[in-house]
Amino acid sequence: MADDNIFSGLKVVDLASFVAGPGAAVILSDFGADVIKVEPPSGDMWRIVYKVPPQPRANDNYLWHLDNRNKRGLTLDLKSAKAGEVLERLVKWADVLIVNTPHPARKKLKLEYQDVAQWNPRLIYADLSGFGDNGPDADLPGFDITAYWARSGLLSMTRDAGAPPTWPIAASGDHATAVGLFSAIVMALYRRERTGKGSYVTTSLLAEGVWAAGVHIAGALASAAFYPLHDRQNPSNAILNPYKASDGSWFMLVVTPDKFHALATAIDRPDLITDPRFTDTAKQATNAAQLRAILDDVFAKQPMQHWSEVFDQAHITYGAILAPTEVVKDPQLRANNIVVPLEGAGGKLTSTISSPMQIHGVAKVPARRGPGLGEHNEEILKQLGFGASDIDGLQTSGAVPKAKERAA
User: Fold this and answer.
1) Are 75 and 40 in contact (CB under 8 A)?
2) pLDDT tens digits, residue range 348-372?
3) For residues 272 and 253, what is the distance between their CA atoms, to the nearest angstrom?
4) d(CA 228, CA 237)
5) Quick one: CA torsion of 110, 114, 120, 122, rounded to 10 degrees?
6) Kind of pairing, strands 240-244 and 34-39?
7) Given CB 3.0 to 4.6 Å as the disulfide criterion, which of 261, 288, 354, 396 pairs with 238?
């Protein structure tokens, strides 16, 4: 039940745009928080990104409902002279305020921490930026592809030798960052429980990207010598490599040194165990291209189903490389509530993706569609204590425009 949930009664104002900030708010909403999504009168740009190549094409706005489900919608023109009173009441109402407006614009809008914390000393102010709050690039705008992927070093490493950098999956860094921002918010809430004080928490796409690339970045800090970019034909390690089955299916093989004997036995090539080229890890590395050629030949003789059974029986770690259209058919997703029903979105959109953590014994709030632009304007203004004449004035001034008919 929602009223039994971990964040029931928690009040969140989501002033962020695009993905990472709203994604953190979605996780809070999954566990019962009351989240108000605040947008400019023109709407969050994320409302239309599903129409922008190379996003998968669909008639239904799957992106909007993914990152804004279970929220109420309010439009607010922060540049309007009358917006200040609405913002003040929102901050006084809120436990958590999530902001990702670049700092130069944030200062003009009086949205900095010192501007709003005076209204609510218990406020958790969650700040997300592209490159961090300090340094020469603190004020630069950043998307996950530029700050999380490119600047962090990830994009330079996630390609094969001889290939140029490629385009990563949009918002993949944003969703990882959303979990980081959510974690910071929860730490601040825990601190508030102990001290009664609010907090100013922050993370950045760059920090999250460097953390994701941490194994290699830490290596660089230690002046490590790096292997060349991965080359499937000439890998540094042939038993950490993708392979192709006879039916055209690809899979990633991940065999630790202690499992080489089990692999050779499972694929009916026990001769590899005593082959002088492969008797230890160093020799396997020196002769990796030869071992790769042998494994290519073996795996090309049977379909993926066969190899799945062989690997499972021998406890060999592997991963079938699936396309999105195959991923959504994976029974693990529904068995573990990774994909869940979505209520009210309409069209063909009947499911969405839940946030990636569970608490045993606590059911998440059932997912319902994201709000239409300004859908809950009057309801929220009344809740904040504005009377009918006040609401008329806010609408007339354009500070809180009248909501149009619902459209994602």
Assistant:
1) yes
2) 999 999 999 999 989 999 999 999 9
3) 17
4) 12
5) 140
6) unpaired
7) 288
